[in-house]
Amino acid sequence: MLDSAGVLITTIDALTIRAPAIVAAAAKQLGSIKLQLFFGDRSEAELFADNSSLIVRRDPSDESYRVQVHFDDRSLMLLFDSAEKPSAEALEKSLDMRGSREDLLATWRCFSLLSQRASGLRSVQAIWSAYRDQVGDAAWRPDADGGDTQTEEMPRWPALAWLNDRYPAAQELLSGNDPVLVPARSLWNGRDAGSWQAAPDVFDNDLMATLDRCKDRVVDEILRLLPHKQPKRDLYDLMRDYVVREGKGLRPTLVIATCVALGGRMEDGVRAAAALEMFHNGFLVHDDIADESTHRRGKPTLHMEHGIGLAVNAGDAMHLFAVDMTLSNLETLGLSRTLGIIHEILFMCRETVEGQAIELGWIHRNFVPRRDADYARMSTKKTGWYTCISPCRIGAAAAGVTDPEQLDKFNEAFRLIGIAFQIQDDVLNLVGETEVYGKEALGDLLEGKRTVMMIHLFRNTTPEIVERMREINSFPRIDKPFALAEEMLAAMEGAGSIDYASKLAQKLAYQGVDRFEKDLAFIPENPAKAVLRQVANYVTTRNL
After folding, report:
1. Could you tell me the domains of the chain?
2. At how many degrees (to 10) do helices 4-18 and 122-135 cross?
Protein backbone atom coordinates (compact mmCIF):
# COMPACT_ATOMS: atom_id res chain seq x y z
CA MET A 1 0.00 0.00 0.00
CA LEU A 2 1.47 3.33 -1.09
CA ASP A 3 1.14 6.58 0.81
CA SER A 4 1.05 9.90 -1.07
CA ALA A 5 4.84 10.34 -0.98
CA GLY A 6 5.23 6.76 -2.21
CA VAL A 7 2.94 7.28 -5.19
CA LEU A 8 4.99 10.32 -6.23
CA ILE A 9 8.26 8.40 -5.89
CA THR A 10 6.86 5.47 -7.88
CA THR A 11 5.59 7.84 -10.59
CA ILE A 12 8.93 9.61 -11.01
CA ASP A 13 10.76 6.27 -11.10
CA ALA A 14 8.40 5.00 -13.81
CA LEU A 15 8.74 8.18 -15.88
CA THR A 16 12.53 8.12 -15.65
CA ILE A 17 12.52 4.72 -17.35
CA ARG A 18 9.48 4.99 -19.60
CA ALA A 19 9.28 8.65 -20.63
CA PRO A 20 12.63 10.36 -19.98
CA ALA A 21 11.70 13.31 -22.23
CA ILE A 22 8.95 14.25 -19.75
CA VAL A 23 11.37 14.06 -16.81
CA ALA A 24 13.99 16.14 -18.64
CA ALA A 25 11.42 18.82 -19.55
CA ALA A 26 10.10 18.98 -15.96
CA ALA A 27 13.63 19.14 -14.53
CA LYS A 28 14.40 22.05 -16.84
CA GLN A 29 11.40 23.95 -15.47
CA LEU A 30 12.35 23.22 -11.85
CA GLY A 31 15.98 24.26 -12.32
CA SER A 32 17.85 24.67 -9.04
CA ILE A 33 14.74 24.84 -6.85
CA LYS A 34 14.46 22.25 -4.10
CA LEU A 35 10.92 21.45 -2.94
CA GLN A 36 9.68 20.28 0.44
CA LEU A 37 6.41 18.38 -0.04
CA PHE A 38 3.74 17.69 2.58
CA PHE A 39 0.74 15.44 1.88
CA GLY A 40 -2.67 15.01 3.49
CA ASP A 41 -1.79 11.58 4.89
CA ARG A 42 1.16 13.13 6.78
CA SER A 43 3.81 11.64 4.51
CA GLU A 44 6.60 13.97 3.35
CA ALA A 45 9.17 14.11 0.55
CA GLU A 46 11.67 16.38 -1.16
CA LEU A 47 11.92 16.91 -4.91
CA PHE A 48 14.75 18.50 -6.90
CA ALA A 49 16.38 18.36 -10.32
CA ASP A 50 19.78 16.79 -10.93
CA ASN A 51 20.76 17.84 -14.43
CA SER A 52 18.01 16.25 -16.58
CA SER A 53 16.76 13.92 -13.86
CA LEU A 54 14.23 14.41 -11.08
CA ILE A 55 15.18 13.12 -7.65
CA VAL A 56 12.42 12.51 -5.09
CA ARG A 57 13.16 11.21 -1.58
CA ARG A 58 11.23 10.61 1.59
CA ASP A 59 11.79 12.43 4.86
CA PRO A 60 13.13 15.85 3.88
CA SER A 61 16.25 17.02 5.69
CA ASP A 62 16.33 20.01 8.03
CA GLU A 63 17.90 22.28 5.43
CA SER A 64 16.01 25.30 4.17
CA TYR A 65 13.88 24.83 1.08
CA ARG A 66 13.07 27.52 -1.45
CA VAL A 67 9.52 26.22 -1.91
CA GLN A 68 7.13 24.30 0.33
CA VAL A 69 4.09 22.60 -1.19
CA HIS A 70 1.13 21.22 0.81
CA PHE A 71 -1.23 18.78 -0.96
CA ASP A 72 -4.36 17.13 0.33
CA ASP A 73 -5.91 14.17 -1.50
CA ARG A 74 -8.29 16.42 -3.42
CA SER A 75 -5.63 18.69 -4.87
CA LEU A 76 -3.31 15.78 -5.63
CA MET A 77 -6.01 14.00 -7.61
CA LEU A 78 -7.03 17.10 -9.57
CA LEU A 79 -3.43 17.95 -10.38
CA PHE A 80 -2.90 14.50 -11.87
CA ASP A 81 -6.00 14.70 -14.03
CA SER A 82 -5.45 18.27 -15.30
CA ALA A 83 -9.23 18.67 -15.21
CA GLU A 84 -9.31 22.03 -13.42
CA LYS A 85 -7.49 25.33 -13.70
CA PRO A 86 -4.94 26.18 -10.99
CA SER A 87 -7.33 28.73 -9.49
CA ALA A 88 -9.86 25.97 -8.86
CA GLU A 89 -7.31 23.73 -7.18
CA ALA A 90 -5.62 26.26 -4.88
CA LEU A 91 -8.08 26.19 -1.98
CA GLU A 92 -7.16 27.02 1.61
CA LYS A 93 -5.63 24.00 3.37
CA SER A 94 -6.07 21.98 0.16
CA LEU A 95 -3.22 23.12 -2.09
CA ASP A 96 -0.79 25.58 -0.56
CA MET A 97 2.56 26.70 -1.97
CA ARG A 98 5.04 28.93 -0.18
CA GLY A 99 8.03 30.65 -1.73
CA SER A 100 9.04 33.53 -3.94
CA ARG A 101 6.84 34.44 -6.91
CA GLU A 102 9.41 33.25 -9.48
CA ASP A 103 10.02 29.98 -7.65
CA LEU A 104 6.31 29.27 -7.24
CA LEU A 105 5.68 29.83 -10.93
CA ALA A 106 8.56 27.53 -11.88
CA THR A 107 7.26 24.88 -9.46
CA TRP A 108 3.76 25.11 -10.90
CA ARG A 109 5.15 24.79 -14.45
CA CYS A 110 7.04 21.66 -13.38
CA PHE A 111 3.98 20.01 -11.82
CA SER A 112 1.66 21.08 -14.64
CA LEU A 113 4.00 19.63 -17.25
CA LEU A 114 4.26 16.37 -15.33
CA SER A 115 0.49 16.07 -14.88
CA GLN A 116 -0.40 17.03 -18.45
CA ARG A 117 2.00 14.60 -20.09
CA ALA A 118 2.49 11.81 -17.57
CA SER A 119 -1.24 11.23 -17.06
CA GLY A 120 -1.45 9.99 -20.65
CA LEU A 121 0.83 6.99 -20.06
CA ARG A 122 -0.91 3.75 -19.14
CA SER A 123 1.88 2.73 -16.76
CA VAL A 124 1.37 5.95 -14.81
CA GLN A 125 -2.40 5.63 -15.01
CA ALA A 126 -2.11 2.20 -13.37
CA ILE A 127 -0.16 3.67 -10.44
CA TRP A 128 -2.68 6.45 -9.85
CA SER A 129 -5.74 4.26 -10.45
CA ALA A 130 -4.52 1.95 -7.68
CA TYR A 131 -3.93 4.97 -5.46
CA ARG A 132 -7.39 6.38 -6.23
CA ASP A 133 -9.01 3.06 -5.33
CA GLN A 134 -6.93 2.90 -2.16
CA VAL A 135 -7.88 6.42 -1.02
CA GLY A 136 -11.58 5.89 -1.74
CA ASP A 137 -14.30 8.05 -3.19
CA ALA A 138 -14.66 10.70 -0.47
CA ALA A 139 -12.46 13.80 -0.31
CA TRP A 140 -11.89 15.27 3.14
CA ARG A 141 -11.25 18.96 3.46
CA PRO A 142 -10.22 20.37 6.89
CA ASP A 143 -12.77 22.85 8.21
CA ALA A 144 -12.02 26.18 9.84
CA ASP A 145 -11.77 24.61 13.29
CA GLY A 146 -9.19 22.12 12.19
CA GLY A 147 -11.58 19.16 12.15
CA ASP A 148 -12.31 16.94 9.17
CA THR A 149 -15.59 17.42 7.35
CA GLN A 150 -16.76 15.39 4.37
CA THR A 151 -17.81 18.03 1.85
CA GLU A 152 -17.87 16.56 -1.62
CA GLU A 153 -17.31 13.53 -3.79
CA MET A 154 -13.78 12.70 -4.82
CA PRO A 155 -13.12 13.71 -8.45
CA ARG A 156 -13.67 10.69 -10.64
CA TRP A 157 -10.86 11.62 -13.03
CA PRO A 158 -12.89 12.06 -16.21
CA ALA A 159 -9.79 12.16 -18.41
CA LEU A 160 -8.65 8.74 -17.26
CA ALA A 161 -12.14 7.27 -17.69
CA TRP A 162 -12.49 8.89 -21.12
CA LEU A 163 -9.15 7.54 -22.34
CA ASN A 164 -9.91 4.01 -21.14
CA ASP A 165 -13.37 4.09 -22.74
CA ARG A 166 -12.06 5.40 -26.05
CA TYR A 167 -8.82 3.38 -26.19
CA PRO A 168 -9.25 0.19 -24.13
CA ALA A 169 -5.85 -1.35 -23.48
CA ALA A 170 -6.94 -4.82 -24.57
CA GLN A 171 -8.43 -3.51 -27.82
CA GLU A 172 -5.29 -1.47 -28.49
CA LEU A 173 -3.12 -4.59 -28.33
CA LEU A 174 -5.53 -6.69 -30.40
CA SER A 175 -5.91 -4.05 -33.08
CA GLY A 176 -2.29 -4.39 -34.14
CA ASN A 177 -1.77 -0.63 -34.06
CA ASP A 178 1.76 0.50 -34.70
CA PRO A 179 3.16 1.15 -31.21
CA VAL A 180 4.88 4.31 -32.40
CA LEU A 181 1.59 5.60 -33.80
CA VAL A 182 -0.43 5.47 -30.59
CA PRO A 183 0.07 8.80 -28.83
CA ALA A 184 -0.47 8.72 -25.10
CA ARG A 185 -2.72 11.74 -24.46
CA SER A 186 -5.44 12.22 -21.88
CA LEU A 187 -5.86 16.00 -21.56
CA TRP A 188 -9.61 16.52 -21.21
CA ASN A 189 -11.87 18.99 -19.46
CA GLY A 190 -14.61 16.51 -18.62
CA ARG A 191 -16.86 17.48 -21.53
CA ASP A 192 -15.00 17.12 -24.80
CA ALA A 193 -11.59 16.27 -26.25
CA GLY A 194 -10.17 19.69 -25.55
CA SER A 195 -8.38 21.04 -22.51
CA TRP A 196 -8.38 24.29 -20.58
CA GLN A 197 -4.61 24.30 -21.14
CA ALA A 198 -3.89 22.57 -24.41
CA ALA A 199 -0.35 21.49 -25.22
CA PRO A 200 -0.29 21.30 -29.03
CA ASP A 201 2.20 19.10 -30.82
CA VAL A 202 3.25 17.27 -27.67
CA PHE A 203 3.35 13.50 -27.89
CA ASP A 204 4.65 11.05 -25.32
CA ASN A 205 4.95 7.31 -25.68
CA ASP A 206 5.96 4.74 -23.11
CA LEU A 207 9.55 4.17 -24.23
CA MET A 208 9.97 0.76 -22.59
CA ALA A 209 6.70 -0.55 -24.04
CA THR A 210 7.64 0.80 -27.48
CA LEU A 211 11.12 -0.76 -27.29
CA ASP A 212 9.59 -4.12 -26.32
CA ARG A 213 6.97 -4.06 -29.07
CA CYS A 214 9.41 -3.07 -31.80
CA LYS A 215 11.96 -5.64 -30.64
CA ASP A 216 9.30 -8.38 -30.45
CA ARG A 217 8.07 -7.56 -33.95
CA VAL A 218 11.60 -7.71 -35.36
CA VAL A 219 12.51 -10.90 -33.48
CA ASP A 220 9.32 -12.53 -34.80
CA GLU A 221 10.35 -11.52 -38.33
CA ILE A 222 13.83 -13.03 -37.90
CA LEU A 223 12.53 -16.28 -36.41
CA ARG A 224 9.93 -16.54 -39.19
CA LEU A 225 12.57 -16.18 -41.89
CA LEU A 226 15.36 -18.31 -40.39
CA PRO A 227 15.50 -21.74 -42.07
CA HIS A 228 14.00 -24.67 -40.19
CA LYS A 229 16.27 -27.36 -41.54
CA GLN A 230 19.54 -29.14 -40.83
CA PRO A 231 22.15 -28.52 -39.53
CA LYS A 232 19.78 -27.22 -36.87
CA ARG A 233 21.74 -27.98 -33.69
CA ASP A 234 25.11 -26.74 -34.95
CA LEU A 235 24.05 -23.71 -36.99
CA TYR A 236 20.48 -22.42 -37.02
CA ASP A 237 19.87 -22.90 -33.29
CA LEU A 238 23.09 -20.95 -32.65
CA MET A 239 21.89 -18.16 -34.95
CA ARG A 240 18.68 -17.92 -32.93
CA ASP A 241 20.50 -17.85 -29.59
CA TYR A 242 21.55 -14.19 -29.28
CA VAL A 243 18.44 -13.01 -31.15
CA VAL A 244 16.02 -14.27 -28.50
CA ARG A 245 18.12 -13.19 -25.51
CA GLU A 246 16.91 -10.20 -23.53
CA GLY A 247 18.02 -6.90 -25.05
CA LYS A 248 16.97 -3.25 -25.13
CA GLY A 249 15.53 -3.22 -28.66
CA LEU A 250 17.15 0.16 -29.29
CA ARG A 251 18.19 -0.38 -32.91
CA PRO A 252 14.85 -1.81 -34.16
CA THR A 253 12.99 1.03 -32.45
CA LEU A 254 15.19 3.71 -34.02
CA VAL A 255 14.72 2.17 -37.49
CA ILE A 256 10.95 1.84 -37.19
CA ALA A 257 10.36 5.18 -35.44
CA THR A 258 12.44 7.10 -38.00
CA CYS A 259 10.67 5.37 -40.87
CA VAL A 260 7.23 6.24 -39.47
CA ALA A 261 8.27 9.77 -38.45
CA LEU A 262 9.19 10.49 -42.09
CA GLY A 263 5.92 9.17 -43.49
CA GLY A 264 6.59 5.46 -43.90
CA ARG A 265 4.65 2.56 -42.41
CA MET A 266 5.87 0.38 -39.58
CA GLU A 267 6.04 -2.63 -41.91
CA ASP A 268 8.28 -0.67 -44.28
CA GLY A 269 10.99 -0.62 -41.62
CA VAL A 270 10.61 -4.07 -40.04
CA ARG A 271 12.64 -6.08 -42.56
CA ALA A 272 15.46 -3.51 -42.59
CA ALA A 273 15.45 -3.49 -38.77
CA ALA A 274 15.60 -7.29 -38.76
CA ALA A 275 18.60 -7.24 -41.11
CA LEU A 276 20.33 -4.71 -38.87
CA GLU A 277 19.73 -6.90 -35.81
CA MET A 278 21.29 -9.88 -37.57
CA PHE A 279 24.35 -7.83 -38.48
CA HIS A 280 24.50 -6.67 -34.85
CA ASN A 281 24.30 -10.20 -33.45
CA GLY A 282 26.94 -11.42 -35.86
CA PHE A 283 29.22 -8.61 -34.71
CA LEU A 284 28.54 -9.56 -31.08
CA VAL A 285 29.50 -13.20 -31.64
CA HIS A 286 32.81 -12.24 -33.29
CA ASP A 287 33.41 -9.41 -30.81
CA ASP A 288 32.97 -11.78 -27.87
CA ILE A 289 35.55 -14.14 -29.35
CA ALA A 290 38.05 -11.33 -30.00
CA ASP A 291 37.54 -9.94 -26.47
CA GLU A 292 37.50 -13.43 -24.87
CA SER A 293 34.24 -12.45 -23.16
CA THR A 294 32.52 -15.05 -21.01
CA HIS A 295 28.96 -13.67 -20.80
CA ARG A 296 26.53 -11.82 -23.03
CA ARG A 297 23.06 -10.66 -21.88
CA GLY A 298 23.30 -12.68 -18.69
CA LYS A 299 24.23 -16.00 -20.33
CA PRO A 300 27.47 -17.66 -21.51
CA THR A 301 28.78 -16.32 -24.80
CA LEU A 302 28.29 -18.48 -27.86
CA HIS A 303 31.93 -19.57 -28.11
CA MET A 304 32.07 -20.45 -24.40
CA GLU A 305 29.03 -22.69 -24.77
CA HIS A 306 29.64 -24.22 -28.22
CA GLY A 307 33.32 -23.65 -29.00
CA ILE A 308 35.08 -21.07 -31.14
CA GLY A 309 34.68 -22.91 -34.44
CA LEU A 310 30.90 -23.22 -34.34
CA ALA A 311 30.56 -19.67 -32.97
CA VAL A 312 32.66 -18.13 -35.79
CA ASN A 313 30.63 -20.05 -38.35
CA ALA A 314 27.34 -18.94 -36.80
CA GLY A 315 28.51 -15.31 -36.83
CA ASP A 316 29.43 -15.61 -40.52
CA ALA A 317 26.02 -17.12 -41.26
CA MET A 318 24.27 -14.26 -39.42
CA HIS A 319 25.97 -11.74 -41.69
CA LEU A 320 25.07 -13.69 -44.85
CA PHE A 321 21.49 -14.00 -43.66
CA ALA A 322 21.40 -10.26 -42.94
CA VAL A 323 22.45 -9.55 -46.53
CA ASP A 324 19.67 -11.83 -47.77
CA MET A 325 17.08 -10.04 -45.60
CA THR A 326 18.28 -6.66 -46.84
CA LEU A 327 17.88 -7.69 -50.48
CA SER A 328 14.42 -9.12 -49.78
CA ASN A 329 13.17 -5.53 -49.33
CA LEU A 330 13.08 -5.32 -53.12
CA GLU A 331 9.72 -7.10 -53.11
CA THR A 332 7.98 -4.58 -50.85
CA LEU A 333 9.99 -1.35 -50.98
CA GLY A 334 11.23 -1.36 -54.56
CA LEU A 335 14.65 -0.68 -56.02
CA SER A 336 15.29 2.91 -54.89
CA ARG A 337 14.56 2.45 -51.20
CA THR A 338 16.30 -0.94 -51.08
CA LEU A 339 19.44 0.52 -52.67
CA GLY A 340 19.31 3.32 -50.10
CA ILE A 341 19.17 0.75 -47.28
CA ILE A 342 22.04 -1.27 -48.82
CA HIS A 343 24.17 1.87 -49.12
CA GLU A 344 23.61 2.74 -45.46
CA ILE A 345 24.31 -0.80 -44.24
CA LEU A 346 27.54 -1.12 -46.23
CA PHE A 347 28.81 2.18 -44.81
CA MET A 348 27.81 1.08 -41.30
CA CYS A 349 29.69 -2.23 -41.64
CA ARG A 350 32.83 -0.47 -42.87
CA GLU A 351 32.78 1.99 -39.98
CA THR A 352 32.25 -0.86 -37.50
CA VAL A 353 35.18 -2.98 -38.64
CA GLU A 354 37.43 0.10 -38.76
CA GLY A 355 36.49 0.99 -35.19
CA GLN A 356 37.06 -2.59 -34.05
CA ALA A 357 40.49 -2.54 -35.72
CA ILE A 358 41.43 0.68 -33.90
CA GLU A 359 40.50 -0.73 -30.49
CA LEU A 360 42.08 -4.15 -31.04
CA GLY A 361 45.23 -2.43 -32.34
CA TRP A 362 45.51 -0.38 -29.13
CA ILE A 363 45.19 -3.55 -27.06
CA HIS A 364 47.63 -5.50 -29.25
CA ARG A 365 50.30 -2.77 -28.94
CA ASN A 366 49.50 -2.10 -25.26
CA PHE A 367 48.86 1.51 -26.16
CA VAL A 368 46.59 3.93 -24.29
CA PRO A 369 45.68 7.15 -26.16
CA ARG A 370 45.84 10.41 -24.20
CA ARG A 371 42.88 12.26 -25.70
CA ASP A 372 39.17 11.71 -25.13
CA ALA A 373 38.76 12.61 -28.80
CA ASP A 374 40.61 9.39 -29.75
CA TYR A 375 38.12 7.36 -27.72
CA ALA A 376 35.22 9.30 -29.27
CA ARG A 377 36.44 8.52 -32.78
CA MET A 378 36.93 4.82 -32.02
CA SER A 379 33.61 4.52 -30.19
CA THR A 380 31.68 6.28 -32.94
CA LYS A 381 33.11 3.97 -35.57
CA LYS A 382 32.85 0.74 -33.57
CA THR A 383 29.40 1.14 -31.99
CA GLY A 384 28.03 4.63 -32.63
CA TRP A 385 27.17 4.09 -36.26
CA TYR A 386 25.41 0.74 -35.96
CA THR A 387 23.81 1.52 -32.58
CA CYS A 388 22.49 5.06 -33.11
CA ILE A 389 23.29 6.84 -36.37
CA SER A 390 22.79 4.12 -38.98
CA PRO A 391 19.46 2.83 -37.58
CA CYS A 392 18.01 6.33 -38.07
CA ARG A 393 19.44 6.66 -41.58
CA ILE A 394 18.27 3.13 -42.50
CA GLY A 395 14.77 3.93 -41.21
CA ALA A 396 14.78 7.13 -43.26
CA ALA A 397 15.83 5.20 -46.38
CA ALA A 398 13.02 2.70 -45.74
CA ALA A 399 10.62 5.67 -45.77
CA GLY A 400 12.01 6.79 -49.12
CA VAL A 401 14.43 9.50 -47.94
CA THR A 402 17.72 9.18 -49.79
CA ASP A 403 18.80 12.85 -49.95
CA PRO A 404 22.30 12.87 -48.36
CA GLU A 405 21.79 16.34 -46.91
CA GLN A 406 18.63 15.25 -45.11
CA LEU A 407 20.15 11.98 -43.93
CA ASP A 408 23.20 13.80 -42.56
CA LYS A 409 20.95 15.75 -40.18
CA PHE A 410 20.81 12.64 -37.99
CA ASN A 411 24.59 12.34 -37.71
CA GLU A 412 25.76 14.82 -35.09
CA ALA A 413 22.88 14.44 -32.62
CA PHE A 414 23.11 10.65 -32.58
CA ARG A 415 26.92 10.67 -32.72
CA LEU A 416 26.95 12.57 -29.41
CA ILE A 417 24.17 10.40 -27.97
CA GLY A 418 26.00 7.24 -29.07
CA ILE A 419 29.28 8.26 -27.40
CA ALA A 420 27.43 9.17 -24.20
CA PHE A 421 25.59 5.83 -24.27
CA GLN A 422 28.84 3.89 -24.75
CA ILE A 423 30.62 5.73 -21.92
CA GLN A 424 27.66 4.95 -19.66
CA ASP A 425 27.90 1.28 -20.67
CA ASP A 426 31.62 1.33 -19.84
CA VAL A 427 30.85 2.83 -16.42
CA LEU A 428 28.13 0.23 -15.78
CA ASN A 429 30.66 -2.52 -16.53
CA LEU A 430 32.65 -1.26 -13.54
CA VAL A 431 29.94 -0.26 -11.07
CA GLY A 432 26.71 -1.87 -12.28
CA GLU A 433 25.13 -5.06 -11.00
CA THR A 434 25.99 -8.06 -13.19
CA GLU A 435 22.36 -9.26 -13.15
CA VAL A 436 21.16 -5.90 -14.45
CA TYR A 437 24.05 -5.14 -16.79
CA GLY A 438 24.06 -8.63 -18.30
CA LYS A 439 27.81 -8.88 -18.85
CA GLU A 440 30.78 -10.12 -16.89
CA ALA A 441 31.71 -7.87 -13.93
CA LEU A 442 34.88 -5.85 -14.69
CA GLY A 443 34.99 -7.58 -18.07
CA ASP A 444 36.30 -4.43 -19.79
CA LEU A 445 39.29 -4.28 -17.41
CA LEU A 446 40.00 -7.98 -17.86
CA GLU A 447 39.90 -7.47 -21.64
CA GLY A 448 42.00 -4.31 -21.43
CA LYS A 449 39.47 -2.10 -23.22
CA ARG A 450 40.63 1.49 -23.64
CA THR A 451 37.74 3.32 -22.04
CA VAL A 452 37.45 6.99 -21.07
CA MET A 453 38.19 5.93 -17.49
CA MET A 454 41.46 4.27 -18.47
CA ILE A 455 42.50 7.23 -20.65
CA HIS A 456 41.71 9.64 -17.79
CA LEU A 457 43.63 7.47 -15.30
CA PHE A 458 46.76 7.44 -17.46
CA ARG A 459 46.55 11.24 -17.78
CA ASN A 460 45.98 11.95 -14.09
CA THR A 461 48.11 9.66 -12.00
CA THR A 462 51.77 9.17 -11.13
CA PRO A 463 54.33 7.66 -13.54
CA GLU A 464 54.68 4.72 -11.15
CA ILE A 465 50.98 3.91 -11.28
CA VAL A 466 50.92 4.38 -15.06
CA GLU A 467 53.72 1.83 -15.38
CA ARG A 468 51.88 -0.59 -13.10
CA MET A 469 48.64 -0.16 -15.11
CA ARG A 470 50.55 -0.75 -18.33
CA GLU A 471 51.94 -3.96 -16.82
CA ILE A 472 48.41 -5.10 -15.92
CA ASN A 473 47.26 -4.37 -19.47
CA SER A 474 50.06 -6.51 -20.85
CA PHE A 475 48.53 -9.69 -19.39
CA PRO A 476 46.51 -11.73 -21.91
CA ARG A 477 42.86 -12.02 -20.93
CA ILE A 478 43.14 -15.73 -20.22
CA ASP A 479 46.06 -15.18 -17.81
CA LYS A 480 44.77 -12.07 -16.02
CA PRO A 481 43.64 -12.68 -12.43
CA PHE A 482 40.47 -10.91 -11.28
CA ALA A 483 42.54 -9.23 -8.55
CA LEU A 484 44.44 -7.23 -11.20
CA ALA A 485 41.16 -5.86 -12.58
CA GLU A 486 40.18 -4.87 -9.04
CA GLU A 487 43.54 -3.13 -8.61
CA MET A 488 42.98 -1.07 -11.75
CA LEU A 489 39.43 -0.25 -10.63
CA ALA A 490 40.80 1.04 -7.31
CA ALA A 491 43.31 3.21 -9.19
CA MET A 492 40.50 4.64 -11.33
CA GLU A 493 38.44 5.42 -8.25
CA GLY A 494 41.44 7.09 -6.63
CA ALA A 495 42.01 9.30 -9.67
CA GLY A 496 38.33 10.24 -9.98
CA SER A 497 38.16 8.61 -13.40
CA ILE A 498 34.70 7.05 -12.99
CA ASP A 499 33.16 10.33 -11.83
CA TYR A 500 34.90 12.12 -14.70
CA ALA A 501 33.47 9.66 -17.24
CA SER A 502 29.94 9.97 -15.83
CA LYS A 503 30.05 13.77 -16.07
CA LEU A 504 31.48 13.63 -19.59
CA ALA A 505 28.66 11.28 -20.65
CA GLN A 506 26.07 13.69 -19.23
CA LYS A 507 27.68 16.65 -21.04
CA LEU A 508 27.69 14.81 -24.37
CA ALA A 509 24.11 13.65 -23.83
CA TYR A 510 22.89 17.22 -23.26
CA GLN A 511 24.69 18.35 -26.40
CA GLY A 512 23.09 15.48 -28.33
CA VAL A 513 19.57 16.36 -27.16
CA ASP A 514 20.18 20.00 -28.09
CA ARG A 515 21.33 19.01 -31.60
CA PHE A 516 18.33 16.67 -31.89
CA GLU A 517 15.90 19.55 -31.41
CA LYS A 518 17.80 21.86 -33.79
CA ASP A 519 18.85 19.47 -36.55
CA LEU A 520 15.64 17.41 -36.72
CA ALA A 521 13.24 20.34 -36.60
CA PHE A 522 12.46 19.57 -40.25
CA ILE A 523 10.54 16.46 -39.12
CA PRO A 524 6.96 17.43 -38.19
CA GLU A 525 5.90 16.68 -34.62
CA ASN A 526 4.24 13.28 -34.55
CA PRO A 527 4.17 10.28 -32.19
CA ALA A 528 7.04 8.54 -33.99
CA LYS A 529 9.32 11.57 -33.70
CA ALA A 530 8.35 11.62 -30.01
CA VAL A 531 9.81 8.10 -29.70
CA LEU A 532 13.10 9.36 -31.13
CA ARG A 533 13.03 12.22 -28.61
CA GLN A 534 12.44 9.75 -25.76
CA VAL A 535 15.45 7.70 -26.87
CA ALA A 536 17.60 10.84 -27.03
CA ASN A 537 16.55 11.89 -23.53
CA TYR A 538 16.92 8.36 -22.14
CA VAL A 539 20.68 8.92 -22.19
CA THR A 540 20.35 12.04 -20.01
CA THR A 541 18.23 10.35 -17.33
CA ARG A 542 19.84 6.90 -17.33
CA ASN A 543 20.86 5.78 -13.84
CA LEU A 544 24.52 4.83 -13.40
Report:
1. 4-135 (3.30.1050.10), 207-541 (1.10.600.10)
2. 170
